[in-house]
Amino acid sequence: MTPTRDAFEARLRQIGAERYHDRHPFHHMLHGGHCTPDQVRAWVINRYYYQSRIPMKDAAFLSRVDDPDLRRIWRSRIEDHDGTAENEGGIRRWLRLAQAVGLDPDYVASAQGVLPATRFAVDAYVAFVREKPLLEAVAASLTELFAPKIHAQRIEGLLANYAFADDSSLAYFRNRLKEAPKDVAFGLKWVLDRADTTEKQDAAAAALTFKTDVLWSQLDALSSAYVDPARIPPGAWHPGEGLLAKGAA
């Protein structure tokens, strides 16, 4: 017997409660003010790679969708990140954060210093959405169920603990507090409506679990490379690289 819609939604939410990256030690370091300036910079550089690939992931999804109504609704996600004539977009807001922490935005946008594990994890997510059934591709996005909480914590923690934090540098997170609930309300209903067999529910739950692994592995990579004892892999960002010239911030 297929579990009820409510039971399936509870299952999805439990995945977040157990596996979302707000439970990761690096998350607590960052929000608690225990990261060094270089550890914050490493996080900004690597998280940018994830942010920059989100609209590419959504474009890959749209290329497979036959339903024009679904395409119309989904493409707002690309606009939220890439921007429009009226909205600068999340990517530009993230680069403003990069500048606030002392990084050259052009260096960050080049993705030169991204950790190999970050690149592999993020690219795997883009490939997942490009290749898996649409139900699983949408289900993987449902980490947005848990995002508003982490964004609110991030705003509070960064403002309390870091000199660079202000309304301008944290604009990305403030905007996501408005954007993510809209996206997840649609995505959650879409998945709940279509996961009407046990097999489909299992596949959707596995997709959401995969996405939590993508996010968790990025923080594992940061911890391994930049938290004592630091083990920075070849080609990844080293402290002192990619900084703004004095007076340029």
UniProtKB/TrEMBL annotation:
Keyword Oxidoreductase part of the UniProt annotation: yes
Primary role: Ring cyclization and eight-electron oxidation of 3a-(2-amino-2-carboxyethyl)-4,5-dioxo-4,5,6,7,8,9-hexahydroquinoline-7,9-dicarboxylic-acid to PQQ.
Annotated GO MF terms: pyrroloquinoline-quinone synthase activity
Cited HAMAP family: PQQ_syn_PqqC
Name of the protein in its database record: Pyrroloquinoline-quinone synthase
All copies of domain Thiaminase-2/PQQC, residue ranges: 10-220
Keyword Oxidoreductase recorded: yes
Keywords: Oxidoreductase, PQQ biosynthesis
Gene: pqqC
Coiled coil: none
Enzyme category, top tier: oxidoreductase
InterPro entries: Haem_Oase-like_multi-hlx, PqqC, PqqC-like, Thiaminase-2/PQQC
Recorded family membership: Belongs to the PqqC family.
Record field: catalytic activity: 6-(2-amino-2-carboxyethyl)-7,8-dioxo-1,2,3,4,7,8-hexahydroquinoline-2,4-dicarboxylate + 3 O2 = pyrroloquinoline quinone + 2 H2O2 + 2 H2O + H(+)
